[in-house]
Structure formats: structure tokens, C-alpha cells
Design a protein that fits this description.
Rossmann fold, alpha/beta, protein transport, six-stranded mixed beta sheet, Sec1-like_sf, globular, 579 residues, 45% helix
Length: 579
């Protein structure tokens, strides 16, 4: 159930099958990202791939018949037409063509007719149509897939293709279940079921004692998790600096080396990151110090080059020394910037207020704390708005709620109109996901607030870690056989859920978070017999989630939510009383 390994094996095999000799890798915009997330460019170069081209930008390139062309494309009509044009006037000696998903017979016919010079050696389907961010985490990189609480048709198709690709790469023919309140999840489930029935020959996998499960969720079941500040290394970097295809831009970061405008954060390529990506911020400070101490010890040993033997040892160890030097610089820069942002924007105090909103029943205390923070210049407009979003979701039914007053405080501090208007959008988004008896915010068995003293990193005294994503409850109920057919029906025409759960693919319509990825990681460590692959339309931080929500509620009729359209004043100065 390792999605990253599945993609790496596909890429390795397509290059290997083309045989020895110099090669060019011809891809499209998406497959470039799919490959770059799974492989470092240096690794690809070691496989005799010396040229990388994007098919929509390669039309006027030089003719190099001595190169073999390995083609890896999504099976879109546009790509088929571009490849057909390439084959009519081939620039390379031979072509090995691989599509990341199911290709139609009509498309194969178009390519066959274009191959007049018979340069195509093979055409295959290699099911790597998703971004394998980690061994158990994948994304489709789809921004704003929902408009007016309906699927963007292209995004629905892309989501189905992506999930089907995950299933085929893992060789799973699953039972399909979805969240009953969500027509979005149901449509995707039915789309996937229809394709599995149509392409039944592809899904003839031996099931064994337990039948795999595909569980399709809707982000509205938990709109809180994407809005919270994060305190584990990977999630924190994504929230404050943003990770895109395992890369982080350091442009504009004070003190960042000039030759380090972008850094790679991949557990596959970076041992320190692999060992520490789930650690909390304070522990990272300790491990960074240990890494630097180890590096300084090795650096001192490199200074003693007094004999031929010393010179030989230096040359042999230099690549590892250089790699370690780069890792130290990268992580010291990242942790230094995270620490600066935490201090500059008062994120510890903001996070404390967020955790209280998400996990406690202290309305008066939370309201007082939020009012105090909203008049503080030190916190960012984004953080101020997120506190109001959380409060609105949490207490919109409380008799003493003061959403209007908080929105007014946002306006007074000069918060952008877009964020002020989004208070209503977030509330409507969350309310459209409420079901009878559901609890989108609170978990009864959440741990108490824990305070941890961090001695390894100056300026950080404690973090709050009480929030637990709703996904954790779903996983617990799943393993205990408590996911009811009423709340999580099996898609019609499918089989019923097996007694024993072992292999599970979870896909969240509307995006997944690193906090949920951590929950899956921890769950599988405790429940060693269960393997889970978790994915979503996008891997969210708070800003990308807010953008998705804005698109989702745009053009939504006023009566579509449980609350009046004018229940929250907008940034334009509307003052309807929220009673």
C-alpha cells in the first residue's frame, strides 16, 4: 500500500524497458510533477536520461535520432493530438509510450495512424496518475474543484481517474463506500464504480481473505482541521511557507542563502526530514542542534588533511559531507524562518485560542480571548480571520454568540474585504456538511491541553496539541466495524463491506491535510495489520482551504444553507443583525 513506491517502480520500469543508451523523457505539465515528486533529477540522470522535455513546448526542438524517447503522458485528448504531431515528424530514433491512465482505443488508433515511420516500439498504461507525496499520502493538485456545491465536471473526471490509478497501481478492486450526506462523494463513488465495471478486465486482482475498501469523504465533515495552526515539522512548513510538489520556495526569506531559492523536502531524498517530519516544533529544535553538532565534528575531521591517506579519505567522503552540509543549511534556514514567523505573528497565543475553540466548551472565555487578539496589531489578518471563522462554526447556535461584533472588529482593524466576506462563506460551507447527530468540531475523548517545555529552541515555550481530526474517529469506528450503512452507504451495485478490514484507500473530496496524514501514520503504527493510503483533491493549508471554500459557496443560492444569506455582515458594510 505504498503509493510512492508504486510510482517509483513505474518510472523505473519505463526507463529500464527502453534498454541501454541515452534517453529523453517527454512529459506533460502534470506528469512532470508526478515524476519530480517521486524522483530527484539526479536519480533520473543516473538512469541515462539526459534531456527532459514538455510536450506542449517541444515542437521546434532539434532532431536527435541518436536518443531514445520515453514518453509519459496523461491520456487526455490534447496530449494525444500533440503526440500524434510529434510522431508524424519524429525528432528521436525510437519512442516508448506510456500513459498514466486508461487510454481509449480511438486514441491508440490516432497514434497508430500517425506513426508512418514506425518509430513507436510500445504503448502501455502505467497507472501513476497522482502525486505520491509520501508512502501513504497522495494528492491530485486540484484547486477549487467545487463550484456552487457542485463538481466542476473536469475535476470530477480527474478525481475519478486519479483514484482509479491509485487502485490499479496498488492492485486493489475495492468495495466503495461514501459519506451519505454528500452528493459530491456519491457522484465520485458512482463514477469510479461505473469505470471499474466497464474496465472489469483490469480489476481482476486476487482479494484473499479481506476485501479492500475505498472510502470517499467530503471535506465538509471536518472544516476545522484545515483552519488550525500546525506544530509538527511537515505540517508547519506547509502552513507557514507552503509545500508544492515537495518543494518549498525560500524567495524573500531573510538570511536564506542566495543559491537556495527553492529546497526539496522529500522523505525519500532527505534522511533528516524522513526522521523528523512528524516531530513537534520544539523537538525539531533539539534535533537540528544534534545535526549541527554532528556536522561540525565531521567538518573538523575534514580540516586535518596531512597525508595521502587523509586526502584519499577526504575525496571519498566529500559527496556525503557536501550532502550533509546542504541538509544542515536547508533545515537550519527552515526552522529559523518558522521560529521567526511564530514570534513575529504571535502564533503561540493565536494557536492557544484556536485549540480552545476547537476542543472546549468555554464560550465566554474564548470570546474574550478572540476580542483581545483582534485588536492586537502583531497578529496577521489571516490569523484574525481564522479565529472568527472557527468561532462562527463553533458557536453559531450559541444563545450569546457575537459573530457580528467580531466581524466588526475585523473591519476596524482593516482586514481585507475578501476575508471578512468569507466569514459567511465558511459558515455556509460548514453548515452544508452538518448532518443529524453529527459533530463537526468536538471530539468527546480529546486529550487535555498538554504543555511541553522546549529547552532546545529559544523563544518557544509551549504548544497546544489537544485537537484531533475527525478522521481519527472515522478510522477508529472503521476498525471496530462501526461505520454504519446509513452514514457510509456502499455504492449501489457494489458488494457489502467485509468483516475484516486490512487495505483501505481514503479519498477526501475538497482536500486533505498533513494533520490527517499524521493521524493515519499514528493509526497504522498502533493497528499494524491495517494499511491505509490517504489522498485528496489537494493537500491544504489554511489559505488554500479558504480559497476552495470561496469557490465552493460562490453562486450558491441564499436558501441553500441553513442560515440566511444576510446573517453575517459583509465587508461592504451590510449590518444585518445575527440573532
Amino acid at each position: 500500500m505504498n503509493v510512492l513506491l508504486a510510482v517509483r517502480m513505474y518510472v523505473s520500469k519505463m526507463i529500464q524497458d527502453s534498454g541501454p543508451g541515452m534517453k529523453v523523457l517527454l512529459m506533460d505539465r502534470e506528469t512532470i510533477g508526478i515524476v519530480s515528486v517521486a524522483y530527484a533529477q539526479s536519480e533520473i540522470l543516473q538512469k541515462e536520461v539526459y534531456l527532459f522535455e514538455q510536450i506542449d513546448k517541444s515542437g521546434n526542438g532539434p532532431i536527435m535520432k541518436h536518443l531514445k524517447c520515453v514518453v509519459f503522458l496523461r491520456p487526455s485528448q490534447e496530449n494525444v493530438q500533440l503526440l500524434a504531431s510529434e510522431l508524424k515528424s519524429p525528432r528521436y530514433g525510437v519512442y516508448y509510450i506510456y500513459f498514466s491512465g486508461i487510454i481509449s482505443k480511438a486514441s491508440i488508433k490516432v497514434l497508430a495512424e500517425s506513426d508512418e515511420q514506425e518509430v513507436v516500439r510500445e504503448i502501455q498504461e502505467f497507472y501513476a496518475d497522482f502525486f505520491a507525496v509520501g508512502p501513504h499520502l497522495f494528492s491530485l493538485n486540484l484547486e477549487k474543484p467545487i463550484h456552487g456545491m457542485e463538481w466542476n465536471p473536469n475535476c470530477l473526471q480527474r478525481s475519478a481517474q486519479g483514484v482509479l490509478s491509485v487502485l490499479l497501481s496498488l492492485k486493489k478492486n475495492p468495495i466503495i463506500r461514501y459519506q451519505n450526506f454528500s452528493s459530491l462523494a456519491r457522484r465520485l463513488a458512482e463514477n469510479i464504480r461505473d469505470t471499474i465495471l466497464k474496465e472489469s478486465s483490469l480489476f481482476h486482482f486476487h482479494r484473499g481473505e479481506s476485501i479492500p475498501l475505498l472510502l470517499i469523504l467530503d471535506r465538509r465533515y471536518d472544516p476545522i482541521t484545515p483552519l488550525l495552526n500546525q506544530w509538527t515539522y511537515q505540517a508547519m512548513v506547509h502552513e507557514l511557507l507552503s509545500i508544492k510538489n515537495n518543494r518549498v520556495s525560500l524567495v524573500g526569506v531573510p538570511g536564506a542563502p542566495k543559491d537556495m531559492s527553492e529546497v526539496l523536502l522529500s522523505a525519500e531524498q532527505d534522511e533528516f526530514y524522513a526522521n523528523n517530519m512528524y516531530l513537534n516544533f520544539g523537538d525539531i529544535g533539539q534535533t537540528i542542534k544534534s545535526l549541527m553538532d554532528e556536522f561540525q565534528t565531521k567538518a573538523k575531521s575534514h580540516q586535518k588533511v596531512e597525508s595521502i591517506a587523509d586526502m584519499k579519505a577526504f575525496v571519498e567522503n566529500y559527496p556525503q559531507f557536501k550532502k550533509m552540509s546542504g541538509a544542515v543549511t536547508k533545515h537550519v534556514t527552515l526552522v529559523g524562518e518558522l521560529s521567526r514567523l511564530v514570534t513575529q505573528h504571535n502564533l503561540l497565543e493565536v494557536s492557544e485560542a484556536e485549540q480552545e475553540l476547537a476542543c472546549q466548551e468555554e464560550h465566554t472565555q474564548s470570546l474574550t480571548k478572540i476580542r483581545k487578539l483582534l485588536v492586537t496589531d502583531q497578529i496577521r489578518d489571516l490569523d484574525a480571520a481564522r479565529l472568527v471563522f472557527l468561532y462562527a462554526i463553533r458557536y453559531h447556535k450559541h444563545p450569546s454568540k457575537d459573530i457580528v461584533g467580531l466581524v466588526d472588529l475585523l473591519r476596524r482593524r482593516g482586514t481585507p474585504v475578501r476575508l471578512i466576506d468569507c466569514v459567511e462563506g465558511i459558515l455556509r460551507y460548514a453548515s452544508s456538511g452538518e448532518t443529524a447527530g453529527s459533530s463537526i468540531l468536538t471530539t468527546k475523548d480529546v486529550t487535555k491541553i498538554t504543555e511541553k517545555i522546549f529547552k532546545g529552541l529559544k523563544g518557544v515555550e509551549n504548544v497546544f496539541t489537544q485537537h484531533s481530526p475527525v478522521l481519527k474517529e472515522i478510522l477508529d469506528n472503521m476498525v471496530k466495524g462501526r461505520l454504519t450503512e446509513e452514514a457510509f452507504p456502499t455504492v449501489s451495485g457494489g458488494e457489502s463491506t467485509p468483516g475484516r478490514i486490512q487495505d483501505v484507500v481514503i479519498f477526501i473530496v475538497g482536500g486533505v491535510t498533513h494533520e490527517e496524514s499524521l493521524a493515519v501514520h499514528q493509526f497504522c503504527r498502533v493497528n499494524t495489520g491495517i494499511r491505509i493510503a490517504l489522498g485528496g483533491t489537494l493537500i491544504h493549508n489554511s489559505q488554500s482551504f479558504i480559497s476552495d471554500v470561496e469557490a465552493a459557496v460562490k453562486s450558491l443560492p441564499a436558501g441553500n444553507a441553513k442560515y440566511p444569506h444576510n446573517s453575517v455582515p459583509s465587508g461592504s458594510g451590510r449590518h444585518s443583525k445575527l440573532t
